[in-house]
Amino acid sequence: MTSPDYSDIQAAADRIAPFARVTPLLSSPHLDALVGGQIFVKAEPLQITGSFKFRGACNAVQMLGDDVKTVVAWSSGNHAQAVAMAAKMRGLKAIIVMPEDAPAIKKKNTKALGAEVVTYDRYNESREDIGKAIAEKEGAAIIPPYDFEPVIAGQGTIGKEIAEQSKAISITPDQVICCTGGGGLLAGLSLGLHHHWPDLSIYGAEPEGFDDFSRSLAAGERMGNAPDARSLCDAIVTNMPGEKTFPINQAHVTSGLVVSDDDALYAMAMAWAHLKIVVEPGGAVALAAALTGKIETASKTTVVVASGGNVDQPIFEQALKKLS
Q1: Is the pTM of this model over 0.85?
Q2: What is the DSSP track for 270-299?
Q3: How many whole angstroms separate alpha carbon 237 and alpha carbon 301?
Q4: d(CA 263, CA 277)
Q5: pLDDT tens across 67-96, in order?
Q6: N or C: which end of the chain has fewer CB within 10 A?
Q7: Domain limits of the chain?
Q8: Stretch 50-72: mean pLDDT, rounded?
Q9: Tell me: domain 53-148, CATH 3.40.50.1100, correct?
Q10: Are 6-51+150-323 and 53-148 in the same CATH fold?
């Protein structure tokens, strides 16, 4: 497959329709008042396995030939669960390489879906090298978390849904904000949205210390993060934008936005209080950018993607303290 286009997103939407959920576009008068405009939240924590990752994983696994019996993936947790579920639905064995410090709920849920979990030290070992060695030994197909065309096309179904849902309620977004790590979601989303609204402003949101996309976009080339960087936003703490996703995002994304871990925790609290959804730190950075003034929202219609909700209880309790 060459770089995905809208026909690939449409094909992905048809392919995953029997398995994935069409997630709602939520709004709240309180949040509207807070930002001085309209804000709508695409609620991917309500997706199968609790994040947008199921879309891309399901599309990729459904595209595999019948000769494939085992799949291998590497992930901090959301792609892990997504591949495990997608593989289970096709009766395939899944082996997932996960960091030792991944949230306990993500490791537990991945194992509960029948996957074999192999852990590694994310700061001193290469998950890609470990995964490729396992795949070669097992004769398995690899489902990468973002730099893979079937995954990008699957994530693009979110953009397609946002456009269709917006038109159904007679709104036209002025801007869309989406979290980004490796860039698969942002790339797919941008392709899906720009098919409907070619001039729409799209922004990528990242946590402090992992603002590689923002810096890469400004520099015109892929930039990495400091090896000692740390963040609560485990789902999007990749080292640098993907080789395949970055050119797509260069062509479609206006700029990057950077938020703190505290901003993300605040957004998690606001999503729980006013939208009644549970969002994890990495899944809340787009909403955080809108709620904490990282972008102008007054008198505008802003759509943000809440990308996942797989959060350990102590971190969620920490977020809820932002309400007191």
Answers
A1: yes
A2: HHHHHH-----TGGGHHHHHHHTTSS--TT
A3: 28
A4: 17
A5: 999 999 999 889 999 999 999 999 999 999
A6: C
A7: 6-51+150-323, 53-148
A8: 97
A9: yes
A10: yes
